[in-house]
Every structure is written in C-alpha cells, then in structure tokens.
Design brief:
alpha+beta, Helix Hairpins, 4 domains, elongated
Length: 519
C-alpha cells in the first residue's frame, strides 16, 4: 500500500450553517495511482465530529473509499513570533533577543579581562626575571603596566554596566512574563488530519468530496427596514458566528433552520385523571369572579424569553447567500446579505393610551421577498435617519407585516378614568359604570397644513361567565366607536388639523347578579 508523503490541502468550499452547528463540505482534486493507497489530507478543524464524516470520490476512473478517519495531534507553537501574535508577546520576544545579545557581550568582556590578567602576570614575571639578570628598563615596565591596568579598568567598567543592564532587562522580562500569563493563554494547537484509504482500478485524476458536522457555529436572522414615503425597502441579512478553528474563505453559504440535534421521537404518554366533585352549598349560592389580564392569542409559536432560537414556524427553512462569503474564525458576528426587496407600504398613526401616552407610526406591507421572514431584530430607518430597533415576527411569503417606526412627537394623549358603582334594592344587582376620556392634541410646526388620522384604541372587558354582563353604552359615548372587535378593542379614527384638539369618551357597564362576588 502506497502512502502520500505530504498532507494534501483540503479547503472548505461550502457550508450549511444550522441553528447551533454547521455542516462543512470540502472538495479537492487527487491524483490516484493504481492499487490501494493511503492519503493524508488537511489540516482541518479538530472540532469535526467523527461519526458524521463522509467521503465520496467522483471521476472517470473507478475508485472506492475503503476507510476515512480523523487523526488529531497537538502541535506546539514554535519559538519564533508569528504574524498573529499580540504586541505583548512581540515585546517579550524583543526583550529576550536583547538579553541574548547582552549575554554574548558579557562573555566577550569577561574573556578580555581574563586575558589582560594573564598578560599582567606574564609582565610581572618578565620584570622579576630581568631584575635577576641585572636588567633595568624602568620606563618600559612602567608604560606596559600602566597600559594593562587602564585596559583592565575600562573593560571592568563596561562589564559592570552590562551586568546592571542585564539585571534590569531580567526584571522587565519577568514582569512581561507575569503580564502575559495574566493576559493570555497560549496552549499547544490541536490540529486534525484526514486519513483516507482508497482503492483505484487504474491511475488517474479523481475529485474528493468530504463533509462533516462541526460545533461552535450558528446564525440568526437580522433585518433593516428603510421607509421612504409610500415605499419600504427591507434588507434580509444573516448574522453568522463561528469559532471552529479555521476560516471560511469564499464559501457557498447556506442557512438552514433544521435542528439536527433534536431527537425525532414522540413524547411519552402519561395518565391524566379527571375527577368530578359536588359543589358545596356556599359555592351554589355565590359566583366568584375576578378581573384577569390576558394577552390576545394569535396563531404562531409561543414567545421565548432570553436569546431565542430560529423561529421557522414549525417547518425547516433554507436560505442561500447569493455570492460566496468569507467568515473568519474569531467568534464575532459577521453580517451576510441575503435579499433586498422594495414594496408598497401603508402608514398610520396609532395610540393605545392605556399602555402608552405616545402616538406611534405603524407601517403595514406585504412580504414580497419570496421567502419566509424569520423572527429577528430589525433596524428601523426613515427620513430622519436611524430611529431605533424593533422586532419582526415570523411572516410567511405574501403575508402582511406590521412595523412600528417610533413615536411622533407632535401628539400628546391624556387618559382619565371614572368609575361609579350602584346596587339595586330588589334584585341586589351590582352595576359598575366606567367612563374613559381620551384627550388628544396635535402640536404642529408653523406652516404645517393638512389633517392627519390617528387611530385610538381602548379595551372593554370581555365576560367569560353568564352571570356577568358587559354592555357598551353607545348613547353616552362621544363619539361612538368606529368598531369593536371580538376581543373588546374599541377603535376610533380621529382626524386632527394642525394645532387641533379632540376628546373621545367611552362608557361601558359591568353588571352582575346578587350572587356574584369579586366585582
């Protein structure tokens, strides 16, 4: 069996990003020889899931994949600085280089001082021997001794300076090491390689397609809505995060809401016992009621607190990036454009004074993007620029969409409520009358003309028991509501001229029989 000596590059060419992981596809061209051979490809991310590894060979010549596996190994970092090193690590490398140069200079100076010491010893021996033979050359001996002493003093001073500088440098290096230990951790790098065993009937080229799952990658939808008069431009983007250990460079990116980690098994059935009990005499005589706040239910998924997953309406959705994209492995959010659509929009000013005294501009349009709009944040932009950030709910293709583009500062709404309670003597029936007055004012700039319609909404309680009745007193309302839906929401379309003021009055009664308690 022949083995390829060097690893063959195996770049990432396509990525399917799921809700909490990614399916990575790699392709490369191979030159196969006849017979069985083992190829080493990579490096690849060490986070690749082994059990999802799949390899496929295509080409004119018949070749079979006998075995494919991932082999991981720790690769320590080299002593030399890399291009992606931090400034602190580069400074440490420079200090260590200076320390090495000072050490070499210290050794040279120490060797010269030792040589001068031996020279002084030889000179003194020469003086002693010359004196024994009766030679007297005092001037030469004095000159040579003075030269040796001056050289030894000069080199000793340089050596002391080098020692002081080396000590200071050692202190700075120790401080830098402590700062480096606190600031960053540099473990050995874990790399993975693919060992592929193939059998080819004859030599020739072949194309390898390898795919696997990898964690540490996810995506979420994001939008940008630009309102320009009666048209609205909606940009659909994907925020992609990945920390898989390798960059995605010019890959075909597909975004899916499929949840591969969720088990596809039915829930376990448990017993649910229902029992009936007779009411007591006190319960037969009275009906206990209470006021309860209920959010109007709509068809769709239940809201999720915190960071939600990708809301796809219960059906897996697939979105494609129109152009190849690059996502580095830095763990940061990267915006990937998906689609841009411009559609007609209808605007209105609406207010729910019970919830907020502000008048909000609502924009309604239809989803003409050709794909479902998944739930996500939307940046709101209009003539004055960025106005804030809202939330876009899941919207099917062609379905209506509603966005709030912030409050309108020209309007003020004041809400006042009154309540009276009356009990009849004969029937002991309790009647609660509530009066709600809404004062709407428009403060327009000088020179502004034209009326504007503001939609006011106020709720009326809805009874769930026959012993309690809720009645709208239309004759006392001023003006009468333009409509009341099944959820008890009354609506008025109020026209206001610049500087105008209107008061809307709503009156309704809540009545209960004598055996009703809790009103």
């Amino acid at each position: 069996m022949s083995t390829h000596p060097q690893p063959i590059p195996l770049p990432v060419t396509a990525v399917v990003c799921l809700e909490d992981r990614a399916q990575v596809e790699r392709t490369t061209d191979l030159e196969l020889v006849a017979g069985v051979q083992q190829l080493r490809l990579g490096p690849i991310s060490a986070l690749a899931v082994d059990r999802t590894l799949h390899a496929e060979l295509t080409g004119e010549h018949r070749a079979t994949v006998l075995d494919v596996r991932i082999v991981r190994a720790w690769t320590p970092h080299g002593p030399l600085p890399a291009a992606d090193d931090s400034a602190l690590r580069l400074r440490l490398h420079a200090l260590e280089g200076e320390q090495l140069a000072l050490g070499r200079r210290h050794d040279r100076l120490h060797a010269r001082i030792e040589a001068l010491g031996r020279l002084a010893t030889d000179l003194l021996r020469d003086i002693a021997e010359g004196t024994g033979f009766g030679e007297t050359d005092e001037s030469r001996w004095t000159r040579e001794l003075d030269r040796v002493d001056s050289e030894r003093e000069r080199f000793s001073e340089e050596l002391r300076s080098v020692d002081v500088e080396s000590e200071n440098l050692s202190t700075e290096i120790a401080d830098t090491y402590r700062a480096l230990d606190l600031a960053e951790e540099r473990p050995a790098e874990l790399l993975g390689h693919v060992e592929l065993t193939v059998e080819a009937a004859e030599a020739g080229p072949a194309r390898l397609r390898l795919s696997h799952l990898t964690p540490c990658a996810l995506w979420r939808p994001a939008y940008r809505a630009v309102l320009d008069g009666d048209s609205l431009g909606l940009e659909t983007d994907a925020m992609v995060w990945q920390r898989t250990g390798e960059d995605w460079s010019d890959v075909r990116l597909t975004l899916s809401t499929a949840r591969s980690a969720r088990a596809g098994e039915p829930p376990r059935l448990t017993e649910d016992r229902l029992t009936l009990t007779d009411r007591t005499a006190a319960e037969r005589r009275t009906v206990d009621v209470e006021f309860r706040e209920e959010e109007i239910a709509e068809i769709g998924p239940a809201p999720v607190l915190g960071l939600p997953g990708v809301d796809d309406g219960g059906q897996a959705r697939v979105l494609h990036s129109p152009v190849p994209v690059s996502v580095p492995t830095d763990g940061r959010a990267h915006r990937v454009p998906l689609s841009v659509v411009t559609c007609a929009a209808r605007s209105e000013y609406a207010s729910s004074p019970e919830l907020s005294p502000l008048v909000t501009r609502l924009v309604r349009f239809e989803n003409t993007s050709g794909h479902a709009l998944l739930a996500g944040p939307v940046d709101l932009v209009r003539d004055s620029g960025f106005t804030g950030r809202g939330t876009l709910d899941f919207t099917a293709p062609g379905a209506p969409v509603e966005l709030a583009f912030g409050s309108h500062d020209d309007y003020r709404v004041v809400r006042r409520t009154e309540e009276t309670r009356d009990t009849t003597t004969l029937t002991q029936r309790t009647v609660v009358t509530r009066t709600v007055r809404l004062h709407l004012s428009r403060f327009s700039a000088p020179g502004e003309q034209g009326e504007q319609v503001v939609s006011l909404r106020e709720r009326i309680p809805v009874s769930e028991v026959s012993a309690v009745e809720v009645r709208l007193r239309k004759e006392a309302c001023a003006p009468e509501p333009d409509g009341v839906d099944a959820d008890g929401i009354a609506r008025w379309d109020v026209r206001l001229a610049p500087g105008g003021h209107r008061t809307v009055t709503l009156v309704y009664e809540i009545s209960g029989s004598g055996k009703v308690t809790g009103l």
